[in-house]
Specification:
The chain is of the alpha+beta class. The protein has ten helices and seven strands. Helix 1 packs across helix 2, helix 4 crosses helix 6 and helix 5 crosses helix 6.
C-alpha cells in the first residue's frame, strides 16, 4: 500500500478516534505496511512533516498539535483539546514515572528535539499522559477491568498493564463512556480493532480476523469465542458491535 506519511497518519488517527503521539503513529503505520520507512529516523521525519504542515497551512492544516509530540485531526480538535486537558488534570494526581523508564523518556526527548535536563520532568509528564490516553479514560477503564475480571475480551490476557479500554463507537464522535460501548482489550488487539482488522461477529460473538492477518499469530484467534462479563449490564451493545463489524476489512 503506497500512502504518503500524511495520508497514513490521517488513516491511523481516524481509526484511533483520539490524539496519538507521533511515535505510536510511526510504529503502527510501519508495522501495518501502510508506508515505507523514510530515512534512519522515521519518527523524527513524521513529526517534522506534521509540524511543518501545521505551521505552513495553519487553520487549513488537516492536523492539530494537542501537546508536544501528540497530534489529532483538526476536524475534532475541540474534543481532542478537551480530552487532553481532562487527562492532564488526572495525571497531576498520579505518581511520577519510575526510574526504569528513563530510557523511554530520553527517547521521547530526542524525538521531539529536547536536550536540556530541565525538560526531563516535562517529558515524564507527557509520557504518563500518553499512557493514560492509550489506556482510555480512567473511570471507563476501571469499570471495564472489573467487568471483564481483568482479562482481555479476545485473548484472555490478564496482564493489567497491557489492557486498554476500547470504545466501539468512537468517543470523539459520541462522547459515550457507557460500559456497553466498550471492550477490555490488550493494547495490540485494541489497535487492530480500531483499524477494523479485528471485529466481533455480533450474532455468534466470535472473533473475526481480516484475511491479511490470518497467516500471522493473530490468525489463531479467528472464530474464537469472546470472554464477556457475566453481568449482562456490562455486555457490549450488539448494535454497536454490528456497526463495527460491518466496517471490517475482509
Amino acid at each position: 500500500m503506497n500512502l504518503t506519511f500524511e495520508q497514513a497518519a490521517v488513516n491511523y488517527l481516524e481509526a484511533r478516534g483520539k490524539p496519538v503521539h507521533c511515535k505510536e503513529i510511526v510504529e503502527q503505520i510501519l508495522e501495518l505496511g501502510l508506508v515505507q520507512s523514510r530515512g534512519k529516523t522515521p519518527k523524527q521525519t513524521l513529526a517534522s512533516i506534521l509540524y511543518k504542515d501545521i505551521r505552513k497551512r495553519k487553520e487549513f492544516s488537516t492536523f492539530v498539535k494537542v501537546s508536544p509530540g501528540v497530534f489529532g485531526l483538526r476536524k475534532w480538535a475541540d474534543v481532542a483539546l478537551e480530552e487532553n486537558q481532562e487527562e492532564s488534570e488526572n495525571i497531576d494526581r498520579k505518581p511520577s514515572i519510575a526510574e526504569n523508564d528513563e530510557l523511554a523518556i530520553q527517547e521521547c526527548i530526542d524525538v521531539e528535539g529536547y536536550f536540556t535536563p530541565k525538560n526531563l520532568e516535562e517529558a515524564k509528564k507527557r509520557i504518563t499522559i500518553s499512557i493514560v490516553q492509550r489506556r482510555g479514560q480512567p473511570e471507563f477503564r476501571k469499570n471495564l477491568l472489573k467487568a471483564y475480571n481483568y482479562r482481555c475480551a479476545i485473548t484472555g490476557c490478564n496482564a493489567e498493564e497491557a489492557l486498554e479500554a476500547a470504545h466501539i463507537y468512537s468517543y470523539a464522535e459520541t462522547r459515550n463512556n457507557h460500559s456497553s460501548n466498550g471492550l477490555l482489550l490488550r493494547a495490540d488487539i485494541h489497535t487492530l480493532f480500531d483499524l477494523k482488522l479485528i471485529a466481533i461477529e455480533p450474532e455468534t460473538m466470535t472473533v473475526y480476523i481480516a484475511s491479511k492477518l490470518r497467516s500471522t499469530y493473530y490468525g489463531e484467534l479467528h472464530g474464537k469465542f469472546c470472554n464477556f462479563p457475566i453481568d449482562k449490564t456490562y455486555l457490549p451493545n450488539k448494535e454497536a458491535l454490528k456497526w463495527q463489524y460491518d466496517q471490517r476489512q475482509k
